[in-house]
Please model this.
Amino acid sequence: MTTGGQPLTSILDAPGVPPVRTLFGLWNDELSESLREFGLPKYRVRQLETALYRQKLADISEITTWPADLRKRVVEAGFRVGLPEIVDTFRSVDGTERYLIAGSDGQTVETVWMPEGDGGEEGDSDEAPPARTWSRATICVSSQIGCAVNCQFCLTAKLGIIRNLSAGEIAGQVAAVLKKHDAEPGKDRINLVFMGMGEPFLNYDAFMAAVRLLAGPMEIPESRMTVSTSGIVPGILRFAHEKVRPKLAISLNAPNDAIREGIMPITRKWSIAEVIEAVRQIPLRQKERVTFEYVLLGGVNDQQEHADEVVKLVRRAPFPAKVNLIAWNPGPEVPFTMPRPDDVARFQERLRHHGVPAFIRRPRGRDIYAACGQLKRTVASQ
Ligand code: SF4
Model:
């Protein structure tokens, strides 16, 4: 298994000073192995897991279930918790918050908290949202700093790829945000969407190690997680074999390959048909549907003839599917226009008229650049 943790980097070069070793991101056998020199019995490792993933303690000295002497020896050997830290917060008028979260090398990544967000579940359940504002929330998580996929409508693409995040850095975004809101996955309804910066399937091993960590000691059910891919076929084929996996969303955004190539160059590598064939390999759970995400760009892919093609495409897909429509969120230097509201409504109507479940996603945090495709600004300015 790929290590769930960050690389054990040495940032202290002074002779006699042990290298800093990060614990957050490791669990189970990985923790026992990293701390082998202390010969910890299983229950001590479990206490550490509780401290890291349930209590989300930031410092080894706070682990009061461990004797003071053990804490001291572990710190002296160079170990640190390494819980990612929120270094900046932007608040939207709609309650959405966007965070800059610092990784081990000081690079920041963006994560979004959407209280009352529906986690891509609209249409999946009749359950009414509970009264407490943050008892139902969605966290939008990044998997890379920047992105190599180069979707033409996306601000993150402007960064190019800077680097992959480790499993600890991916799961750590969730831990940092839960801690900030004093939210408990066992008690509060927390959804995760891997739709932040980056293409999760181009950082596959770290992404899936983070999923196991989140579904394991962090206790977030896999059924409350959704990963969105631009259509990385080898990643989808690997995903089909995972025992623990989020729900899948395909970022479709066009009714055919010709239009998709213009806005998503990745289509030249894998056509829509190839992506659909790969998705067919995934054994879906009962009542599970695959989501097609569709960003509507004014005059490009939002007309009635496009809706008719999408109807055919979804009805021919050999698995149950639904469509999430997203009116494009504007960004500087991105050469598109927002769709007209009545075009968005008519697009949805057309899909529904032909029996295709279609939902319009409410834009969240547009004013703080937290909405879909807008995550970039702050990183870029550093
Ligand atoms: S939309 Fe997603 S996959 Fe495409 S460039 Fe942006 S972050 Fe990457």
User: Anything to note?
Assistant: The radius of gyration is 21 Å. DSSP finds eleven helices and 14 strands in the chain.
